[in-house]
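Fold this sequence, please.
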Amino acid sequence: MVYGLIIAIIGGLTGLIGSLSVEWVDSDVVKFNDAAMYFGTEWWTGVVVVVGFVLAIVVAVVGLFVVRRKPFALSGLVIAVVSLVFLFLTPFLIREDILE
């Protein structure tokens, strides 16, 4: 269980750093007036994803220091799945905004 929580922390940090440093929208395909619109944090679904990554990391770190780790591991898994759903919804939200 401890190894799984450590892997969850590493995965959460990788996802958080990647989502904050890499553009979510290809600038060769879509042109925005504001350069910040290419990043996921400018869209509400992207903010949910970043908050989900942070919550998953916090839950995994707390799970390392308690005796009963299974509820924390399950909570982190649920948070990660919800973040993944919003990650997949973000391109559709961006496309809808472009078409308007």
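The radius of gyration is 16 Å. The mean pLDDT is 85.
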